[in-house]
Amino acid sequence: MSSNVTTIDTHYTGRPLIAASYLLRTDDAVAFVETGTTPTLPHLLQALTDAGLTPADVTHVVITHVHLDHAGGAGALMQACPGATLWAHPRAAPHAIDPSRLIHSAKAVYGEAFSQLYGEILPIPEERVVVANDGDTLDLGGRTLTFLHTRGHANHHFCVQDSGSDGIFTGDSFGIVYPSLQRKGLFAFPSTTPTDFDAEAAHQSVDRIVATGCSVAYPTHFGPQHAIVAIADQLHRQLERYGALVEQGDESGLEEAALDAWCRTAVDTIFDEELTRAGLGDDAEARTQCTFDADINAQGIAFAIRKRRYKRSQVP
């Protein structure tokens, strides 16, 4: 716990130290930033109990964006906390109110595993949802939360600057920093999610986070980080390479499975080189842990290439 910020391990997919929720407390207000998935709800409720609080004490719930590892459990948490208001990006709020499209797309990806991973994704009554525009603020019992829109990972993403901790809750906009991969020094990497990855916007978001001057970042994956400038340097270096991959893949002429395979090989190369740079090149466990994220990043690059080609094809 730091400055009334408690890091909660949501045990996403049953694994420790992968995804976090944060509990913020003042004398007059209690807020969660990020909710995890519906199956992880007991961990959030236990954190309230450990803090001497009840669900009725929760006044606000904030989601940085609606990707399911961050907000899949928002409906369930809101149902458990009847006095809470949900704060969401203008493009995220409609999906929190009516998650049917999220459910449909996730089931298409995860199939029968969807229910085990994410449980029931509940809608949130519209009257309990507040849209947070860029620069909007929330007075949380004397500490100010400021919402900063940060594209690059998702077009419906914001970060939350917190005056009470001199910190910023960064969702996925400031990369992934798994504790288990810090054995030899700092190792951070960006998440180039399918559908919305934009290298230029991601660079700008990283710079905006650094420019806040906050002394601590709270990425969802995972936990408080004080090496702000060093993380930004690693992210910028890798985002430069991911942006180049989109350019190269677009020009390659590769299609369908061949394009997917090329992207995966290229992303694996980036991870291999960055792990080696971090002193983890011969660490089989570290490489295994990066497999899932490398696959997601490769999908994001392939999607960005196809999206770029599609937009070009629509120009008369």
- State the major sheet: 6 strands, mixed
State the separation between the terminal residues, measured CA to CA: 57 Å
- Strand percent estimate: 15-25%
Strand and helix order: EEEHEHHEHHHEEEEEHEHHHH
**How many β-strand runs?**
11
* Inertia-based shape: globular
SS content category: alpha/beta
Name a few traits of the molecule.
single chain; 316 residues; alpha/beta; six-stranded mixed sheet; five-stranded mixed sheet; 41% helix
What is the topological layout?
Blueprint: E1 5-9, E2 20-25, E3 30-33, H1 41-50, E4 60-62, H2 68-71, H3 74-80, E5 85-88, H4 93-97, H5 100-110, H6 114-118, E6 129-131, E7 137-140, E8 143-149, E9 158-162, E10 167-171, H7 199-211, E11 216-219, H8 228-252, H9 256-277, H10 284-289, H11 291-313
Parallel strand pairs: 3-4, 4-5, 5-6, 10-11
Antiparallel strand pairs: 1-2, 2-3, 7-8, 8-9, 9-10
Helix pairs in contact: 7-8, 8-9, 8-11, 9-11
